[in-house]
Design goal:
2 helices, single chain
Length: 81
Amino acid sequence: MKLTRPVSWFLTVFGVWSWVIWATFAKNLWKDGSGLAFDDAGDPTAYFWVHLLLTITSFLLGTAVGVIGFRGVRASRGERT
């Protein structure tokens, strides 16, 4: 399957965007002071573990989508769509 240049760029930008959004979320999760992510003793709660798993999954999927897009951009160099 061959990706068009606009689709390739979209996937690449989506992968970068995913990293920016989820890195910010992970930072905020780690610094959570509301009592949701960490209990009074400072131990991680179920909320923390579930959202950490979501973050890791999103990093992996964002990376995969970005790599597919980047490969499509590289493959479409010199071609006109």
